[in-house]
Design goal:
It is a single chain. This protein is mainly α. Helices cover about 80% and strands about 0% of the residues. α1 packs across α5. The longest helix has about 35 residues.
């Protein structure tokens, strides 16, 4: 998201002024991330269970699947921490200077209206799904002792 689409200083500044659009797109991609995560877990489990998909799975296969499934994103996270720490030292200062020069805050109601016109259903569905997931999950945990009796 931090890399400019075009080239030069102007492109970088303009892209940072409207990064909310890119962030929204990134959050809309969570479903694909969940899908590919499940595919990766199934493939790893098949690999470490010697090609057999039949249960029961060994503790060793489950441990290796668990560890590798977290190691893969850890590499990307470590790179992101390095990049933001050492390569983007003054990104927030540069953004504030660009906003002052352009006389913008980075937030405007027109962009928000356009976003909700095109993505409003997706935003509402995502928010509703997360809300209902929390209600059901924490609700079950909260009243778990009542169900067990």
């Amino acid at each position: 998201m931090e890399n400019a689409v075009g080239s030069g200083k102007i492109s970088t500044r303009d892209d940072r002024l409207h990064r909310g659009r890119k962030v929204t797109s990134a959050f809309l991609m969570q479903g694909w991330g969940s899908f590919f995560n499940q595919v990766l877990l199934l493939l790893l489990l098949l690999i470490f269970h010697h090609g057999s998909g039949n249960p029961p799975y060994s503790k060793l296969a489950a441990q290796w699947t668990y560890r590798i499934s977290f190691a893969i994103p850890a590499v990307g996270t470590a790179w992101l921490i390095y990049f933001r720490t050492y390569k983007m030292r003054s990104a927030s200062k540069q953004l504030m200077v660009a906003k002052r020069k352009s006389s913008v805050t980075g937030y405007d109601t027109e962009s928000l209206k356009i976003t909700f016109r095109y993505f409003g259903g997706r935003v509402l569905a995502t928010a509703g799904t997360w809300y209902m997931n929390d209600v059901f999950f924490y609700g079950n945990k909260l009243f778990q002792s009542e169900f067990i009796k």
